[in-house]
Amino acid sequence: MHGKTDHTSHTHVVPDGTTCMRISDYLSGVFPGLNTKSSVKKSLKRGEISHNNQIATTADFINPGDEIVYLKPISEPRKIFNLHLDVIFEDDEVAVINKPAGIVVSGNQFRTIENALPGSLKASPSEDALMTPQPVHRLDSLTSGLLIVAKTAKAHLHLSRQFQNKTIKKRYNAVVIGKPNDEGIITSPIENREAVTRFRTIKTWRSIKNKYLSLLEVTPETGRTHQIRIHLKELGYPILGDTLYGTEGLILKHRGLFLCAVALEFIHPKTAEPIKVKIDPPTKFSRFPENEEKRYNRQ
Fold it and tell me: Matching NCBIfam families, A to Z (predicted)?
């Protein structure tokens, strides 16, 4: 383990009413270990702080609702959360896992994907290997699917910059209530910030309760919090099982959220080769609507 660094992830959301200011001025005292402006600047220089899923710099300005993540270096290995994770792709630099629904990616708790990674991934022999692999981005707790994980410090920085430059392509499947157009683009801002989501309808089923259920292919071009869920709700087609943004009286309970990250494309941080990873959504994405249509046809 000599030369390897472990980190613990801390997340902070800038509260409403906060005055716009430089991130280096704002963060003093926000995270443990970053009690001075000097320590904040050093951490920013080391690439330990991300701002809305992008590597932060001293030039960044913060606004209410912004998400800031601090990868705090620690000297002792963390306790492993015993959760089996399906590993879709893995080498010495990077891995892609299939995140199960209902588990947060990281945070100030034990039951996280981050704490489960060491039990499912192989240790990297690279000189700059992280003692604990680090997720490079986030998925909502209720969302399942593909999650990119960095196993080295260089990979983490390289992949974070790809997210910052919007060169990583992500695609989701969602089952929504209703019958949308064959395809479309949603551009309504989220919290006064640009947000763009494209969708394509793959299949539609009849339903007694919901009239229609539709399987969509969804491609977010920006990465706002809950973007897909908010945009589809605004369009009039909330995601099945969405207890936060769903329509009262039509919320499907105890079946989970029907949203899954099914495809990723990125550039490998060491080989510079394009990596394309794809999975099928959970079987409930087709089984539940098919059963709904059978009941509709029997009435």
Answer: rluA_subfam
Higher pLDDT, 157 or 4: 157
Length of the chain in terms of residues written = 299
pTM listed for this prediction: 0.77
Q: Average pLDDT, whole number, for the chain?
A: 91
Report d(CA 253, CA 257) in Å as an integer: 9
- Chosen domain end from 165, 196, 211: 165
The long-range contacts involving 291-294, CB below 8 angstroms and separated by at least 24 positions, are 292/205, 292/206, 292/207, 292/208, 292/209, 292/210, 292/213, 293/205, 293/206, 293/207
- The 8-class DSSP code of residue 5 comes to B
- Same-domain status, 15 and 152: yes
What is the pairing mode between strands 183-186 and 169-177? unpaired
Catalytic residue flag (residue 140): yes
Which of 25, 140, 182, 280 does the annotation list as catalytic? 140
* 233: three-class secondary structure by DSSP: helix
Taking the C-alpha atoms of residue 4 and residue 153, their distance in angstroms, rounded to an integer, is 9
pLDDT digit string (tens) for 253-297?
889 999 999 999 999 999 999 999 999 999 999 999 999 999 999
